[in-house]
Amino acid sequence: MKARNLFRTLALLPYQVYVIVVFSILLVLWGIGVLVLSLFDNNGNRTHRYFVIWAKTNLMVAGLRVSIRGLDRLDPNRTYVFMPNHASFLDILLAFAHIPYDFRMITKKELFSIPFMGWALKKSGQIPMNRKSPREGLASLRQADSVLKAGRSIVVFPEGTRTPDGKIQEFKPTLFILPIRANAPVVPVLIEGTFEALRKGSILLRPVSLRMTFYDPIPIGGFEDEDRWLYAKKVWEALASSGFSREAESGVRDDSTPAEGISGFNQ
Question: Among residues 236, 212, 220, 237, which one has the least CA distance to residue 79?
């Protein structure tokens, strides 16, 4: 088995080198293009569209085929909060390339420090989330709320970080205050194949087939802020039905005790 894995790794070496070189070149060209484009883009819309083109180009040159299912369940005129599972950096590319809505993404603050990529994220109006600071996290949710009120959708990974084992992890219930306050239905999105293609902590990409499935939007119903963990559980269960979740785990912790600072969400 070890010999077989070693042979496969060596066989894929030219592909790995090709992908790393091409991705690096595209990142630099893309970053420069974003800087130039941002001079003529006050609201980030053009830059966001450029983001979409960059994501599709990266997936294409890597030879990663993506099948899409479930878009017929969505209303093209509605505003949604899309919540995909998170297994790989590739999930970000898939979201930009294949969620056909005008949206802004909530993503970890650390990405904004990466040369070229950070510039593009900022100029296109994506939203940084500091996972270590509740105060800054609350400010990010307020920014996302403004995006929804402006008629754009939001994409956020409710696990908060990439899975280490390919299984769907616990959701962060505080994130669900956003759709509750904005009265925007949540769309669970199941991404398959990215964990096998590019695992957390690895730079070795494997050319496997990828799939995105959009589930039925889950309306707010009668959920209030204190019910956010119940809403999170409902969304988690929609994805858990795929068999990707951890067995015998609910996927959401009850944090129904009011979180510090939540009352200032709409300030």
Answer: 220
